[in-house]
Amino acid sequence: MFRILAAFLVVVLLQTGFAASSLFAQTTEELDPMPSFQDVVQAHFSKIKRGSVKTAQPVIDAIQATDHPAASAFLKNWQSKALWYRKADERIVTVKTDDKKTYILFDLASNEVIGQATKKEIKQIKPNSGLRALLGASLVASQLASNDPNLRRESLDSLARDPKPSHLAILRTAIARENDSMLVERMTRLERLLTMQHDEDIEARISAIESFSDDLGLDVRARLNPILKTRLMVSKTAPTEGTYARILKPGYDVILPINTAYDMLVLKSWADPDITLDHKKRTLVSRIENDRIGERPVAELDTQEARDAVYSQLVKDGLAPRDPSDKEIQDALEGVFFYEEYLEPSADVIAATRSTLSAIQTRVALSEAIDLFLDGLSLASIFFLAAIGLAITFGVMGVINMAHGEFIMMGAYTGYVVQQFVTNYTLSILLAIPAAFGVTFLAGVAMERLVVRHLYHRPLETLLATFGVSIALQQLAKNIFGTQARPLTSPNWLDGALVINDVISISWIRVAIFCLSALFLAMLWFTLNKTRLGLETRAVTQNPRMASSMGINPDRINMLTFGLGSGIAGIAGVAIGLFAKVTSELGSDYIVQSFMTVVVGGVGNIWGTLAGAAMIGILQKGIEWFNPSNTLAAQTFMIVFIIIFIQFKPRGIIALKGRAAGD
After folding, report:
1. How far apart (Å, rounded) are the C-alpha atoms in residues 206 and 199?
2. Angle, helices 459-481/404-421, rounded to nearest 10 degrees
3. Distance (Å, whole) CA 19 – CA 25
4. How many CA atoms lie within 13 A of 20 on its CB side?
5. DSSP assignment, residue 162?
6. Per-residue pLDDT averaged across 83-112, rounded?
7. What is the pLDDT of residues 125-183, one digit of tens each?
8. 368 partner at 20 to 30 Å CA-CA among 308, 332, 434, 597?
């Protein structure tokens, strides 16, 4: 019984103790609550107000340790001088004003209005540049450690725009805890960029530099080139191999004239100063006494020889510095070494940088060649589309159609009209291609029936007549659509460019035109080689009389061929209109190139037209590469080249057998 009573008393005492302990803890919590964000800030008011780099880091750590949503905003405001404090109670706030007379005060944590004040009642906190840099680094560290991936991405974007040496350790810490593979890749690349410039470990720098040997990014070259910065130096001994860029010879290198080189020796006290005529004059003037300089009257010093003689006497008397002769200057220059010394002290880092830059430059040159070739192919595909219709009509009928460019213009305007009714740009382009073919096919048939058929075998009259038709079509387009350029909008999926690396890129519109050219090449090849129309066309091309005797109607074939060539020109107009201005003069910009393509490639031959377009497009881009600011000069050189080319290959690259060849 006694044991039971004792156990009961123990349990009661324990429960009473737990209750008392809980009551004490609750009371303590009520008496000592967690400090608010404002309280944490105010606790460091004096350090924030003073703004010293030496005392700011503990304040930054304390504010970030709160994990309060307002912590980053506070640090940003501190960095951007957007913090103020109220003089009456030293409360730190942010402010806003419209009239610059009454200031609205905002709470740091809630950003709610807590009152108003005049300019005299508040004071701005202005951190110096060193503290602002420290705050910036702290902000980057906190943002890269955020749980929000978007904030980490934005912070990394900001960091990449202006990386600092202080960010190196922050990046390495962030990489270790980052779980997003894409962000890890970007962070690692930026970390290597900073490592190769600012790391104290030479081996780490060399490893980072060598890792960029196949990277064509502009930011890589922008950070490698400063490592190879040089300064002009002079030494009595030969410089150490690997520490200098080149040895300079005074008077032969533009950056080192003889007078500059000799001045460097004078600054080193290795040579006497070179006395100029102006300096001699001032010395002589300072020695004038009673209108005499020594024993010579000033009136006798009216020639340079006389003045030099007096100056030489002053030198002998120790009253003026000696003027070295030209031979003495040359001898002094030959006894020393002038060279461009690298600012980078490590020869191994310099060697790695030079090797990496050399490898990058090789890849850049190769990429530029590929990019130039792709530009040439892109231009060739445009020329091919514009010229293939002309190649068909010219090859089959021998008609020089000067209105071919206007059929291109009609196709572009057809696409514009379609887009006025079909607002979906993808669908409108898909509808515009057959519509442009139909419109220009009918226009070509009408022109052949009304004009061209009456002028066969009369090339001069045909040329003049079609030229008149081209002028009429241009004027008709101006009357209908006006002189202002009309937009032919490409679909969104054709925006931008196909980027292979930082050097090679090609717009998606050019890619689409290249694919369209390849498609039409295949369709025309199939039409001319696998269909009855193609068989009859080739028969009329090679021998019209024999074709006629076999029951083929050459007149009908000519009409359909002319219409086919005009229809293809209309499709070319839609493609060209996607990147060029659609005006009544659109066709005239391509008629010359179309004729050049046909003549160089071979009249009436599809493969010849393709070869001519490729040669002209690539060659024109190559000429423009040498003089990119003057495309007119490039076109002039192209015409000169074609004239010379025709002298040796009058029938073009691929000559056509039959009537066209004979003509």
Report:
1. 10
2. 20
3. 10
4. 6
5. S
6. 82
7. 888 888 887 777 777 777 777 777 887 888 888 777 777 787 888 888 888 888 888 88
8. 597
Tokens standing for 153?
């991405």
What whole-number distance in Å separates Cα of residue 216 and Cα of residue 222?
11
DSSP secondary structure letters along 616-643: HHHHHHHHHHHSTT-HHHHHHHHHHHHH
pLDDT at residue 551, as a whole number? 79
How far is C-alpha 192 from the chain's CA centre?
22
Query: Tokens 């074939």 map to which residue?
Result: 557
Average pLDDT, the chain: 82
Q: Which residue has the tokens 């039959």?
A: 658
Integer Cα distance of 262 and 334 in angstroms = 11
For residue range 583-607, what is the model confidence (pLDDT) as tens digits? 988 888 788 888 888 888 876 677 8
Query: With DSSP H G I counted as helix, E B as strand and the rest as coil, what are the percentages for the chain, rounded to 5?
Result: 65, 10, 25
Which range has the worst mean pLDDT, 152-166, 376-390, 430-444, 498-512? 152-166
Eight-state DSSP code of residue 308 = H
Under DSSP, is residue 455 helix (H, G, I), strand (E, B) or coil? coil
Q: What angle do CA 143, 145, 149 make, to 5 degrees?
A: 75
Pairwise CA distance, residues 253 & 268, whole Å: 21
Distance CA 436, CA 425 (A): 15
Distance CA 193, CA 287 (A): 63
CB-CB contact of 414 with 428 (8 Å): no
Q: Tell me what pLDDT residue 5 has.
A: 39
Rounded (5°) CA angle 8-12-14: 115
Residue bearing tokens 């009661």: 12
CA distance 282 to 325: 20
Place of tokens 């890749």: 185
List, for residues 628-646, the tens digit of each pLDDT value: 666 677 777 878 888 888 8
Please report the DSSP string for 364-407 in residue order. Answer: HHHHHHHHHHHHHHHHHHHHHHHHHHHHHHHHHH----TTHHHH
Integer Cα distance of 379 and 444 in angstroms: 26
CA angle 194, 196, 200 (to 5 degrees): 90
**Tokens for 171?**
């990046």
- Residue whose C-alpha is closest to residue 162's, from 141, 184, 190: 190
pLDDT at 183: 87
d(CA 559, CA 552): 13
CA distance 173 to 300: 82
pLDDT band with cut points at 50, 70 and 90 for residue 395: low
CA-to-CA dists, residue 153 to 11, 140, 227, 401, angstroms: 59, 11, 29, 59
Q: At what angle do helices 588-601 and 347-397 cross, to 10 degrees?
A: 90
- What is the pLDDT, as a whole number, of residue 167? 80
* DSSP code at position 507: E
Q: What is the pLDDT of residue 205?
A: 92
Question: H-helix or E-strand containing 234?
Answer: strand 230-235
Asked whether the beta carbons of 84 and 96 are under 8 A apart, the reply is no
Domain ranges of the chain: 1-33, 37-130, 145-228, 367-588
> What is the per-residue pLDDT for 33?
56
